[in-house]
Design brief:
Layout (H helix, E strand, L loop, with lengths): L2 H26 L36 H8 L1 H4 L5 H23 L5 H24 L6 H31 L11
Length: about 180
């Protein structure tokens, strides 16, 4: 797999559905799911998508994690060349729409939860694709591979130094006095 394609796929998955949607928004927004709203038989009050002060303690309704994951399929679809790319993009959006629609039908999300997850992820995919492919002076696959290699070596050095520092502290820690009088 070319380096830019791998970075596009890994970065957009980790940042979109991973960090932004499931790591931040769903944990911090507070919007209760439809099945928990009093209108649909639950105990919580309805909150609009822009209200962050809901009673949901975590894994909340806004935005849809499944929707974000479905719309992430636009990332690999954006890599398909030629006319087949348009077909792949339509298929990715259709898949995401069906997945999001099922979550709405089962009471897990509101329509706006799915729409905003799609907007968030698609904007991330478009921006990442622009940086890696579509702008003037976009990096080549060789340049991206070199950058990944350098980052990997720096990470390896950091881990080795940290491990050695931990080892020194453990070796020089005095042993506790023996227990007596059991």
């Amino acid at each position: 797999m070319p380096a830019r394609a791998a970075v596009l796929l890994a970065f957009t998955m980790a940042v979109g559905p991973g960090l932004l949607v499931n790591g931040i928004l769903k944990q911090e927004w507070g919007r209760p799911r439809p099945v928990h709203v009093d209108t649909f038989g639950g105990r919580d009050a309805f909150k609009s998508w822009y209200q962050t002060d809901g009673t949901c303690p975590g894994n909340c309704s806004f935005v849809s994690g499944e929707g974000a994951l479905g719309f992430w399929m636009t990332a690999p679809a954006s890599l398909v060349p030629g006319p087949a790319g348009a077909v792949a993009m339509v298929a990715a959006v259709a898949f995401a729409s069906v997945a999001g629609g099922l979550r709405i039908a089962f009471g897990g999300h509101f329509f706006t939860d799915v729409v905003f997850s799609g907007v968030l992820v698609i904007v991330l995919v478009v921006l990442t694709r622009y940086v890696l492919y579509d702008r003037k002076r976009a990096p080549s696959d060789a340049a991206v591979e070199l950058a990944i290699g350098r980052a990997g070596l720096k990470l390896r050095t950091l881990i080795q130094r940290t491990w050695r520092g931990v080892g020194r502290r453990v070796r020089h820690r005095p042993l506790p006095p023996p227990r007596t009088g059991l």
